Amino acid sequence: MNENPASPVVTPVTRRNFLKSTSTAVAGGALLGALSAERFALGASPGDTLKIALIGCGGRGSGAANQALSTQGGTKLIAMADVFKDQLEGSLRNLKEKHTEKVEVPQENKFIGFDAYKQAIALADVVILATPPGFRPMMFEEAVRQGKHIFMEKPVAVDGPGIRRVLEAAAESKRKGLKVGVGLQRHHQTGYLETLKRLHDGEIGDIVAMRAYWNGSTPWVKPRKSLEQKFGRPLTEMEYQMQNWYYFTWICGDHIVEQHIHNLDVINWVKNGHPVRCHGMGGCEVRKGQDYGEIFDHHAVEYEYADGSRLGSQCRHILNCWNDVSEHVVGTKGSCDVSRHMILGPNAWRFRADKANPPKDPYQQEHDDLFDAIRNDKPYNEAEYGAHSSLTAIMGRMATYSGKIVEWDAALNSTLETMPKNLAWDAPTLVNPGADGMYPRAVPGKTASL
Ligand SMILES: NC(=O)c1ccc[n+]([C@@H]2O[C@H](COP(=O)([O-])OP(=O)(O)OC[C@H]3O[C@@H](n4cnc5c(N)ncnc54)[C@H](O)[C@@H]3O)[C@@H](O)[C@H]2O)c1
Predict the structure, then answer these.
(1) pLDDT tens string 350-384
(2) Is the CB of 61 under 6 A from ligand 1?
(3) Which of 242, 250, 246 is nearest to 416 (CA)?
(4) Measured from the CB, is residue 153 less than 6 Å from ligand 1?
(5) Which of helix, strand or coil describes residue 215?
(6) Which residue, among 275, 276, 293, has the nearest Cα to 284 in the 3D structure?
(7) For ligand 1, what atom is nearest to the CA of residue 61?
(8) Contact 297, 316 (CB under 8 A)
(9) pLDDT score for 267
(10) How far is CA 375 from CA 14, 179, 232, 368, 397, in A?
(11) Domain boundaries of the chain, sorted by first residue
């Protein structure tokens, strides 16, 4: 889905339409030689086999590769990249089992290390970027530079500089006519699409108040001791943080960014825009200890949109509390439980799935839509709203870490880079444990927001 259909989309030069527009095959052949390899990669006829590279071979990357290989038409997984070999091999085994004919990753197309993504991208027509989000900006930039179609998971960055890189690369991807999908799959979920259509048609009037929650259970943790047992040696700090990435802001963004983005994104979609400022509070109340890095276990943020309407947002990773993952909006003529696809008021309505033809799993649907756009050269670029939703979450984290009001423009123009300059297993990390093994956490009122 293109969030901004009015924006100009350059029709890419494809092998097919290029040949159509030249007078003879001979002239076409001669001129084709002059076209760069990058421009060739753009073209895909409905009958072509699209070559896929998976970068970040964990849970979601493997899922996304499965979905890409399950789309209509020829697809082949031909390259994989990861920083950890066992992750790549495990994912390859599973994918091979499921798609025997469509998975052909020879030894020379398996790439390991921090630079591995560049080589994998070079071999593919379509790349799946599914590492933790801290690495997304540099990988998205590279995939755009190499002229590839892209599916990238959310969030698309974890800080202001990362968002600026993504927005610049997004503009370039539009100029190049690349198709870009972002893993905010609610945009491809029938119940949400039907609900949003009604909200945008004014069924509950002007939307004046919003709520969004991701209050849920706690994610996995990889204690240092168990990692050292697995590796049979002490880990460098970089290795430890990369293994236990969820708990480090420079890799994960904190759970408000990594997870709650889904709900914040829905509200931005409802409002057709993004907040202008926010303030909030948060901390780490329960999930404390040496293995829980630097992130908070709860955030509560109030966002203000350009029309003055407010969004109350909460996300929490604490067990045995009230859990809810949802989005709600109140309008001048009714209200809506967006996540349960239900309108209350004079235009009361509830989405009911067609039992004879049930909607597809949105994770599959988003790949069906992307690959259809690639094969049939339809406008398709989700990078910009993916970046705006990511920044919405990032500014929320800036507000809870600092205790200050954070303005959209200030968050976007922030110079606070969270990523270490040098990515290598023995390179220094910016955040390190103290003598007691505990990592420093943000302290509202003391921590700088930007
Ligand atoms: N859309 C959704 O509903 C959804 C669901 C789950 C995860 N996700 C997103 O998918 C991404 C991955 O999450 P996951 O659950 O699969 O994590 P994961 O830990 O299972 O997988 C991440 C993989 O990336 C690899 N990796 C890390 N840094 C790398 C680098 N610099 N270069 C190459 N490989 C690298 C890791 O070794 C690992 O194999 C995250 O951004 C997450 O937010 C989205």
Answers:
(1) 999 999 999 999 999 999 999 999 999 999 999 99
(2) yes
(3) 250
(4) yes
(5) strand
(6) 293
(7) 16
(8) yes
(9) 99
(10) 11, 10, 47, 11, 39
(11) 15-187+366-381, 191-358+388-412
